[in-house]
UniProtKB/TrEMBL annotation:
Protein name: NadR/Ttd14 AAA domain-containing protein
Organism phylogeny: Bacteria, Bacillati, Actinomycetota, Actinomycetes, Micromonosporales
UniProt cross-references to SUPFAM superfamilies, sorted A to Z: P-loop containing nucleoside triphosphate hydrolases
Organism: Micromonospora zingiberis
Region spans: Disordered: 176-197
NadR/Ttd14 AAA domain sequence ranges: 2-100
A Pfam family matched in the record: AAA_28
Length: 197
């Protein structure tokens, strides 16, 4: 299976990705584009600039379209960078090619959205750039459900907005009836329908 996790910074995506890999035999975690690009010598601004987010967006698309990662858990998706760009005032529909995004999201069996909740804010350490973090969270939710690029409507979506310590079990419960293939929409979450837990 190919699973991807989107969410704002400091929401526990990497922790969840590592836990999923530990419970899904043969799966590997694909690092988020920030670290992949940093390894290649890319120098980021702080906070990242629009150019930086576009570079991470392109890297994320390449990672998801790579056939070498057939059993993978992706730490971030192109949606994250579209949401950061939108949080900065950009029009997401002008930031990426819809057909390219469609091909990338078609490779996923499940898209997990980790959202800010009162519990997550109480449990997790304070994150940097809290204003950007909140704006990105809101932009991400709007993007997921509105899909202005018509690029991920066929990808099953699981929104993790319930108890924080239940996120792993909730995800594994959805993954139990393994889908017949990427984009088949046969998981319990249902194709393109958010299934909040």
């Amino acid at each position: 299976m190919r699973v991807a996790i989107s969410g704002t910074h400091g929401i526990g995506k990497t922790t969840l990705a590592e836990a999923l890999c530990a419970h899904l035999p043969g799966h590997v975690m694909v690092d988020e584009p920030y670290y992949l690009l940093e390894e290649q010598g890319y120098e980021f601004s702080f906070p990242p600039s629009s150019e930086d987010y576009r570079a991470m967006l392109a890297c994320s698309v390449r990672s998801m379209r790579s056939p070498s990662t057939s059993s993978a858990v992706f730490d971030r998706t192109p949606l994250d960078y579209l949401a950061y760009l939108a949080a900065g005032g950009a029009d997401p529909s002008e930031q990426a090619d819809a057909s390219t995004l469609r091909l990338a999201f078609a490779t996923l069996d499940l898209l997990i959205i980790a959202v800010i909740t009162p519990e997550s804010e109480r449990i997790l350490p304070a994150a940097e750039l809290p204003g950007l973090r909140s704006r990105m969270n809101d932009a991400l939710l709007e993007l997921v459900y509105d899909d202005p690029l018509d690029a991920w409507k066929d990808t099953p979506v699981l929104e993790l907005s319930g108890p924080f310590d239940n996120r792993l079990d909730a995800t594994l419960d959805v993954l139990k009836p393994e889908s017949a293939g990427p984009g088949s929409g046969t998981t319990e979450a249902g194709a393109g329908r958010p299934w909040p837990v």
